[in-house]
Design a protein that fits this description.
12 helices, 18 strands, alpha/beta, four-stranded mixed sheet
Length: about 350
């Protein structure tokens, strides 16, 4: 029987500009680990390519599950404009239901301009538009019925206020509820977010987002390092997390977030791999090698693939491998969905990558 999923969050038009290295400068800071792209004012800068695609967390993860063979649907908001038509066409072409994608006459469809060069890690200018106005009145109970998975992609502004209601409605419907909150949501509504995790089965955050939560988790768990930090452990376990003047061991942080409700806590760390805290302990899996064309969409690919695997009853270690494979495929292309793999290709690549190391803590 086909699995069914509902994806809530943003629907975006992504305009992706690739600039060759000789036409743009990059400045990096060694202590702050930040990098900046610099453009000369008043000058037309030659671009290697400028392309337009459909993206956004809800659309990306829905397409990911549709490629996997799931019956996927999106619940979100667009404007009533030409870009909304492009979003609907993209979803239809990928077999994603758009019945609950609402057109707002008072706002534009969200748009992002991504400028990438050097390491292809894009700087993103974003106008969220209609995505900021998803209220509880849009949460049609019929959309949640008979879903095996309800995935909550990043929400912001008014939309973030619906997070708790979405999670509760997904749990009431009997679905596995996964959530991938954005940094704006975590920093502006920290306590409400942590309280809503009582209705979430899988929460997925990256290292930057985790460090934004460190003060709140440290207040509950107390500061301090992990009791076990093997010298040959991955760097994040040895270093721990630091944010807002507080420091916390990685394992202590994962345990603290899990005590808020989720059975599984995923922390991704880019090329340094991913951590999954589940009922049986903590797993670390390294990222897979890839020729990077663009990093946008990698997190959506990883989280959606992992959530689907857990909903299907796949062992967490195997689900993490499939997630790493799908994320590596996505970063090999410029946009956020072209590289997403179908189920048979995922299984084939997973079978050939079974010797990939995984650590348990």
């Amino acid at each position: 029987m086909t699995k069914r999923s509902l994806h809530l969050g943003s629907a975006m038009i992504d305009i992706i500009c690739i600039v060759e290295e000789q036409h743009i400068e990059r400045m990096s800071f060694s202590n702050d680990a930040k990098s900046f792209l610099m453009l000369e004012t008043g000058r037309k800068v030659p671009a290697q390519s400028i392309t337009t695609h459909v993206g956004g967390g809800a659309c990306n993860t829905a397409v990911s599950l549709a490629r996997r063979g799931w019956d996927a649907a999106v619940l979100g908001r667009t404007g009533d404009d030409l870009n909304a038509g492009a979003v609907r066409e993209h979803l239809a072409n990928n077999g994603v239901e758009a019945r609950w994608l609402l057109a707002a006459p008072d706002a534009a469809t969200g748009t992002a301009l991504m400028v990438a060069s050097h390491d292809r890690n894009a700087s993103i200018f974003v106008h969220r538009g209609a995505n900021e106005g998803l209220g509880e009145e849009a949460l049609d109970p019929a959309a949640f019925e008979a879903r095996d998975l309800v995935h909550i992609a990043p929400l912001s502004s008014r939309s973030a206020d619906t997070f708790g209601a979405i999670a509760a409605q997904g749990r009431k419907a009997g679905a596995l509820v996964s959530a991938n909150p954005g940094i704006r949501h975590l920093t502006s509504r920290t306590e409400a977010f942590l309280a809503a995790l009582a209705h979430v089965d899988l929460v997925s955050i990256n290292r930057v987002e985790a460090e934004a939560l460190v003060p709140a988790i440290a207040a509950r768990e107390g500061e301090g390092p992990d009791s076990r930090r093997p010298a040959d452990a991955p760097a994040l376990l040895r270093r721990g997390l630091v944010g807002g003047g507080f420091s916390l061991g990685l394992l202590r942080f994962l345990d603290g977030l899990a005590r808020c409700g989720p059975a599984h806590v995923l922390l991704t760390d880019g090329t340094e791999g991913a951590w999954l805290r589940g009922p049986d302990g903590v797993l670390w899996r390294p990222s897979l090698p890839a020729e990077v064309a663009g990093t946008a969409g990698a997190g959506d690919a990883f989280t959606s693939t992992l959530a689907a695997g857990l909903a299907e009853g796949i062992a967490p270690a195997d689900a993490m491998l499939e997630a790493a494979i799908n994320a590596a495929a996505v970063v090999s292309v410029v946009d956020t969905t072209e590289g997403l793999l179908d189920r048979s290709t995922l299984l084939d690549r997973a079978a050939r990558a079974q010797d990939t190391p995984i650590l348990e803590f």
